[in-house]
Write a structure and sequence with these properties.
Length: 397
């Protein structure tokens, strides 16, 4: 059993192991390195797009099916911890790096990486040309996305419970993923979910009125990926009751931390990090944003998010050539819609024109995107190998 005083040491060890497993996994866990390169590099001038909310950490694993409050599912951006009002080109470079790294991990030839970036930018531009008054997604979905959406729409509470909790009982089992709380943490979580500031919104997640009661059934510290490192992170089971009818709700409570992604000059954003994340989610991923709120826990700002059975991530062990190209175009369109819905028609037209300036043909990736991804792949490859060496030496010591 992991004790509270041992959390940080254990989380660091888990993160280092996870990042050593593949170059693609290393890219996913190295957001700070990406923006350090961006800040220090003078070799590749990125275009300045309209100031909109961007994901800030737009990699393959941060996109996937998300349900709205009624259970309707769309592919949207699913992690907004780094969200800021910034340059949309940053999301394109970050996603391009992730896709190129996935292609290399799948042993695809270098020419496919070039084509992946072409498809990514083509899908993005196509989305900007779309009708933003039409909320339906009309892009062609590759087979891997179609399969994932079918899986997501068929999922129910028992699937979420079995996957997240490994039981359908209203209990969070302590073990490798869920760790024991301190008495103070449990007390403060109870206070948070039952407070008049938070309770009405939590009740609305299950279609209950603001007068419904909310009870903390169980809770644990949540060791989830690398994102728990250095911050508060909890899973909490709630029972929401009105007129003797009750429903169980699973929420994720995560500390909001400062974003590494650079914000646009004079951008008006919430100073509170949790409120910033919620605002970014509502702009970029409406399905997710309507299931999130900000609060205070242990004197820290936290993001409270209802977890839905339909929420999944895109997890692909290996990419085949045809599917990699189709997936890149499709994900480009997802990000294009997320950015474009925040722009005026004039801003979208200007941004499309800017993107096409560095392209020689309709399917040619802009030179700034190609140069950025090539440089980043080489830098991350070297950093990944050094990480693996340090990890190996630490294990041998």
């Amino acid at each position: 059993m992991i004790k509270p005083r041992d959390r940080q040491k254990t989380l660091t060890e888990i993160r280092n192991l996870k990042m050593a497993r593949s170059a693609h996994a290393f890219v996913r866990g190295s957001t700070e390195k990406f923006y350090a390169w961006l800040e220090s590099s003078d070799r590749c001038e990125l275009p300045e797009g309209p100031q909109v909310w961007i994901c800030g950490d737009c990699h393959l694993g941060n996109l996937g099916p998300l349900a709205d409050v009624r259970g309707r599912v769309l592919i949207q951006i699913r992690d907004l911890d780094q969200a800021v009002i910034g340059n949309p080109a940053h999301d394109l470079v970050r996603l391009g790096l992730s896709l190129a790294s996935a292609a290399r991990s799948s042993d695809l030839p270098g020419v496919i990486s070039a084509r992946i970036l072409e498809e990514l930018i083509a899908g993005y531009q196509h989305a900007l040309d779309g009708d933003f008054s039409d909320l339906k997604e009309r892009d062609h979905r590759p087979k891997v996305i179609q399969k994932l959406l079918v899986q997501a729409t068929r999922r129910r509470w028992r699937h979420l419970a079995e996957e997240r909790l490994e039981t359908v009982e209203p209990k969070i089992p302590l073990g490798p993923r869920f760790w024991v709380l301190t008495p103070k943490e449990r007390k403060e979580l109870t206070r948070l979910v039952e407070s008049d500031a938070i309770r009405p919104t939590l009740a609305s997640f299950k279609g209950r009125s603001k007068d419904a009661t909310v009870e903390l059934v169980d809770a644990a510290y949540w060791r989830k990926g690398c994102s728990s490192l250095g911050r508060l992170r909890y899973a909490a089971l709630l029972r929401i009751t009105e007129n003797k009818e009750s429903a169980v709700c699973l929420i994720d409570v995560k500390e909001g931390v400062a974003a590494a992604a650079p914000r646009a000059k004079n951008a008006k954003m919430p100073r509170d990090n949790a409120q910033r994340v919620v605002a970014g989610a509502r702009a970029l991923s409406p399905n997710l944003g309507q299931r999130m709120m900000a609060g205070k826990l242990l004197d820290k700002s936290v993001v409270i998010r209802e977890l839905m059975p339909q929420d999944l991530k895109i997890e692909i062990e290996r990419l085949e050539t045809v599917e990699a190209l189709k997936l890149s175009r499709y994900l480009g369109s997802v990000v294009g819609r997320a950015h474009g819905r925040q722009m005026t028609a004039g801003d979208r037209a200007s941004w499309r024109s800017e993107l096409r300036k560095s392209s020689k043909s309709a399917l040619d990736a802009p030179s700034w995107l190609w140069r950025s991804v090539v440089e980043l792949v080489s830098l991350h490859e070297a950093a990944y190998l050094n990480h693996c060496r340090q990890y190996s030496l630490a294990r041998a010591a």
